[in-house]
Amino acid sequence: MSTSILSVRVNETERSLLEAAAKQAHTTLSEFVRRKAVESAELEVMERRIIEIPVALWEQFEAWLDEPAKEIPALKRLAASTPVWEK
Prior knowledge:
Elements: H1 12-24, H2 29-46, H3 55-66, H4 73-80
Helix pairs in contact: 1-2
């Protein structure tokens, strides 16, 4: 996998905080910032509220919605079980 450089400007206070956190996580500053930036980006993308469906796939999507629900035995057992916090 190829990599590229991403430059970020931070003030002295922010850099000190990032360095302390990286040290606490037993990793380099670059690795810490990279990992946390990617984690944050993944969360941001997963929280997206608007989903776009291309016109060409709309009928296929509607057909999928109209299909009868499928029974999944493992989910049925899970729904019938007592939650861990109630045991």
